[in-house]
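Q: I'm building a small set of examples for a reading group on sequence design. Run inverse folding on the following structure and report the sequence directly after it, with nothing in between.
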């Protein structure tokens, strides 16, 4: 990276953003490119995004591909996907990698006879990439948070534990301990 045009700190921050965007495994190349282009234009206006962004993306993709060579066949995100699929089959609306709770609520409100909602945001995934903890929000069909002792919460926790994903309910959300090893296709 042309750090003289960007600066060491900004270069590190842009690499970090590229890392979480790519490792999330949810954003496609166009979305990653758009987010990084916006960041470069805002944080490094002297740099050429047409040159810098592909370099950042390629570097992040190469790093995750190298790491993936040592990952187990079934990763924590694979097990999470199985839990979410099962919840979906039970009538729970599942929203992955959404921008915010408003978008998740819109999906819930458009569903026919939902049993509840489980969702997580893009920033929740970025936190999981860096810190190994994903926050799942669980709502009733009326958008109220679940509470201890309620069957919807108990069911979600039981499914997570069955798939060897340690999880605890804390302050209105489920904190899932997860090693974010999601295979990426960009």
């Amino acid at each position: 990276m042309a750090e003289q045009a960007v600066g060491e700190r900004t270069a590190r921050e842009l690499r970090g953003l590229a890392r979480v965007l790519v490792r999330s495994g949810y954003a496609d190349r166009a979305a990653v490119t758009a987010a990084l282009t916006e960041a470069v234009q805002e944080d490094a206006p002297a740099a050429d995004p047409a040159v810098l962004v592909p370099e950042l993306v390629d570097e992040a993709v190469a790093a995750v591909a190298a790491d993936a060579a040592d990952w187990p066949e079934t990763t924590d995100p694979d097990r999470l996907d199985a839990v979410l699929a099962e919840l979906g089959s039970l009538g729970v609306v599942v929203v992955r990698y959404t921008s915010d709770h408003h978008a998740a609520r819109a999906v819930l409100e458009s569903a026919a006879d939902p049993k509840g909602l489980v969702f997580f945001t893009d920033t929740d995934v970025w936190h999981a990439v860096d810190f190994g903890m994903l926050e799942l929000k669980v709502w009733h069909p009326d958008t109220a948070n679940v509470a201890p002792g309620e069957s919807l919460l108990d069911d979600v926790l039981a499914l997570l534990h069955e798939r060897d994903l340690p999880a605890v309910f804390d302050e209105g959300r489920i904190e899932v301990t997860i090693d974010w090893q999601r295979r990426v296709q960009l």
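DSSP finds eight helices and five strands in the chain.
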